[in-house]
Amino acid sequence: MTAPGHEAWRGTWRDGLSYGALGLPLAFVALPLYVLLPNHYADVFGIPLATLGALLLGARLLDAVADPFIGRGVDHLLAGPARRLIVAAVAAALLLALGFRGLFFPAVEGEAALLAWCGALLAVTYLSYSVLSVLHQAWGARLGGDEGQRARIVSWREGLALAGVLVASVLPSVTSLSATTAVFAAALAAGVVLLTGAPAARPAPPGAPVSLAMPFATPGFRRLLVVYLVNGVASAVPATLVLFFIRDRLQAQPFEPLFLASYFAAGALSMPLWVKAVTRIGLARAWLAGMGLAVASFVWAASLGTGDVAAYTAVCIASGMALGADLALPGALLAGVIQRAGHGGRLEGAYFGWWNFATKLNLALAAGVALPLLAAFGYAPGGRDAAALQALTLAYCVLPCVLKLGAAGLLWTLWIAKEPAP
Q: How far apart are CA 186 and CA 193, in angstroms?
């Protein structure tokens, strides 16, 4: 049975907004959870950082491991009655909104009770977030279309997601946490309502099987996932180290809002450019061009030092444009893999469950590689030792370039050389 919605994707701004709107609150919620929550529990409630770090790590591991199983459940939902899909989306959104608010306004006191409260609500919040994210991604993949249409669909979702990141980066500093959670809840409600009127996702064939492991039987998925993993670590390393680079290498902490806003705004505004590039050179080659732009950006960044604010702003704009390619194009390539494998309308949830697992694995691998490497070379936050700062530059600029070039090589050999020209 079809998912709720009207006719198939027509490419209008109404179609794009109704489908993509949910991306804004889903991206909005991620920044406070990763950035504000640890500081909030340490400063306001006095929870030791080591204890809090272990709790957050456990919650994130649970979230990552659950994604493939969530994907399988989403496929069952998309294959069932439309009302069941609506109920599941509304229930997940309600749990997400309540969990998000409850994390910042706990109803208990005392360290043990606060840790139990935080752990339980992190599990609820992360899992409900993952349900909505996988459902949203699978819905978009089921809209089908050629390479250009798939790129446009993903661009609406990821462009509005970047808008959500921008709002989340500003709102808590200009208003209260209570107001921030209220704005998030309103945006989430609007996103779910709009999604129920979005273009209809393609129905599953009657009796079609849903398998957790079936995506790995598809050679194209295995090849694309390898490229995505290497490229994802290359992108996650500088994301992990960016504040250290700004504060210690550039000594430009007051300009952090300018740098971050330039980066995310460039990512959002570059989406139409990448969609246009897809119509000319195809998805894979456009993604390859984005990788090249990222390498050029970080080679430039490696030459910067104290006070290079204008030059680093330009680096942020260029690397933000490369981010637009990373966000818009791999997901569209995956949608094509699903179509060509004959799994369209059946297994999008399973594919995107594993895709999201890989995304979260990228973040863990980046922290696991970059931070110990810096420590081994004597860097500590706030340090000004020349050798340590050189190590920071190598980790922030050179390591991502090496990984990006590796990803580009893999994309060429595993994908472009094996696929027919667009």
A: 11
- Per residue in 309-361, pLDDT (tens digit) is 999 999 999 999 999 999 889 988 998 898 888 887 778 888 988 988 888 88
Same structural domain for residues 157 and 221?
no
Task: Taking the CA atoms of 413, 414, 415 and 418 in sequence, report the sign of the dihedral they define.
Answer: positive
Q: Cα 121 from chain centroid?
A: 21
Domain boundary among 159, 182, 204: 204
CA dist 147 to 98, 372, 400, 416, Å? 38, 40, 28, 14
Query: Within 13 Å, how many C-alpha atoms sit on residue 83's CB side?
Result: 0
Q: What pTM was estimated for this model as a whole?
A: 0.79
Which residue among 155, 184, 204 closes a domain?
A: 204
Range of the domain at 370: 211-422
User: Residue 98 burial (CB < 10 Å; 0-12/13-18/19+)?
Assistant: middle
pLDDT tens string 197-218 = 888 766 655 555 556 788 898 9
- 113 and 175 inside one domain: yes
Do 153 and 50 lie in one domain? The reply is yes
User: Looking only at Cα atoms, what is the longest distance across the chain?
Assistant: 65
Single-letter residue type at 291: M
Paired strand residues for 6 = 199
Same domain, 92 and 34: yes
For residues 198 and 93, what is the distance between their CA atoms, to the nearest angstrom?
17
Please name which of 151, 144, 141 lies closest in space to residue 286, comparing C-alpha atoms: 151
Domains in the chain, number: 2
Same domain, 20 and 99: yes
Angle between helices 283-301 and 399-410 (to 10 degrees): 160
Contact 67, 360 (CB under 8 A): yes
Q: Are residues 66 and 87 in the same domain?
A: yes
H-assigned helices in 143-176: 147-174
